[in-house]
Amino acid sequence: MRPNIFSRFLLSYPLHRATVAGLSFIAVIIGARYLPFENFSSAMSAAFLVKFLQILNFGATSGYFVSRYAKEGTLGEGVAGAEQRFLILFGIQLISFGLAFAIVSFIWLPQYFFGAIAFLLVAPCFAVEPYVRYRRNFSFSLVPDLLLNAGLFSLIALQGLGWANMMTYLLVVGILSVIFWVTTMLRHIPSCASVRFGGDDYLQVLALGWPLYLGSALFLLASSMDRLLLSLYGEETQISLYFLAHQLSVGSMIFVTAINFVNTVNLGEARQERDKIEPMMVYEKLKSAALVATASYFSLISGTFILESTFLPNTFHGLSSIVIVQGAGFAAFYTSNSITPLVAYFRHQMPLTLYMGLVVLALFLNNLWIYMSGMSVLSLATGTTIIFSIYSIFAIMYTFYILKKCT
């Protein structure tokens, strides 16, 4: 029996993504209201680092992505054991490099240590996510956010008992991560008992994926630069204020990023079948993303004004100003991402990748300027928004240029 519309809606990725985003909103808002600054800033920094350290995949996920659609890698149909070997080596890679980062942070960068440990706890879920995603289970990609929300809720719930510390946070995240990983292995992953253990296939995946990985790594670095560096030179009050503004700004774009997530797969399938991609179709995707982003942005502004004036403590004064500036930059940034995957499918990713490298450099210099001048986090958000907006305009123009050139 085919599921009805209501059942399909309940099982849909956009609904799950919106639900997890709603939980994130609730968790960070309540956390900002009731947790001490040191606990709130530590939890927000750890959650950020868990997602940032996915940069340690070194192209593995991107290689999986390329080989799936190009049908020219070891993960194509009919290659026995290839995916199992991929999962084993991907997991080893994430854990080994995550452990090395944890050791370095323990010695030299204590601000990152709890985040590094949290990443190690969530790494098994990251390792199996590509396999599950390309079985059309997009919702599993939301598991890390769900785990981090649960950790923050545990701090809030235990605050009154005096047990709200990062050890409690890590314990909750670790237990839930093991539960999700074991459940997923039992339901989705074939037995690896008879799989030949070897690295040749994995190296081929890395070789296929590095061009796309370079772009995705720079994208992740650009979208994370402010929080990555602010954790090193900012005060706890600045970190809490900026991280909360960032969470609200990015969270408000949840429907835009959900559209983009699905579009990436759909455009790849169209390209795989050699369907002609019409400029009007791409324009409509861009227009839809822009409309959703605009509506989300104005909802974000009004909601933040209400939060700051009625719910949050006075220590979060100025949150609305930062959100107005920062939200505009992310609205432009994610709108451009609704069509830029086309550039990778047409094998013309490198110019956009190089430009993203310039964005990363500009963001670094912006942080350096704020640090040296002692200016406010509002100035930091302003510089970032200007940089993101310039990139977004260039990315849209370049995507349509490549589309016209290749079709």
Measured distance between first and last alpha carbons: 41 Å
In terms of quaternary structure, what is this?
single chain
What proportion of the residues form beta strands (DSSP E)?
A: under 5%
Summarize the amount of helix as a percent range: over 70%
- The overall pLDDT average reads 84
- Cα-atom Rg, whole angstroms? 21 Å
* Number of strand segments: 0
- Main sheet makeup: none
Number of helical runs? 16
Order of helices and strands: HHHHHHHHHHHHHHHH
How many domains make up the 3D coordinates?
2
Uncertain parts:
69-78
Strand-pairing-aware structural class: mainly alpha
Inertia-based shape? globular
Structure explained in plain terms:
By secondary structure, this protein is mostly helical. It has two domains: 13-208, no CATH class; 234-407, no CATH class. Helix content is 78%, strand content 0%. It has helices at residues 5-10, 13-34, 37-52, 60-70, 82-107, 113-133, 143-158, 166-188, 200-233, 236-251, 254-272, 279-310, 319-336, 341-345, 350-373, 377-406. The chain is globular, with a radius of gyration of 21 Å. The two termini are 41 Å apart. Keywords: Membrane, Transmembrane, Transmembrane helix. This is Polysaccharide biosynthesis protein. The chain crosses the membrane at residues 20-37, 43-66, 86-107, 113-134, 146-163, 169-190, 202-222, 242-267, 288-307, 319-340, 352-372, 378-403.
